[in-house]
Amino acid sequence: MTRQHPEDALQAQVADYLDRALPLDAWWTTFPAGGGGKIRGRNLKRVGLKTGVPDVLIMYQGRAYWIELKSRRGFATDVQVNTLIALRSAG
Which of 15, 46, 51, 83 is deepest in the core (most CB within 10 A)? Predict the structure, then answer.
């Protein structure tokens, strides 16, 4: 776990777990959008990445499952909460 990205170690553990635990017909990915500075952030926004997207997306049997990972000291930002509300509203 690094000071700049305290959730990286957690995300790596979750990735390892999902690879082993999910059924073979499930599909998942992560959205490592944090870090990289203003230029990277500007480029991600330019190509369509929305702010507040949860860290993990799992697709299984026609359903999407989103997971927002947080370190022990982490908390959901207002943008992340609003994104989760928008995702729920989208079905």
Answer: 83
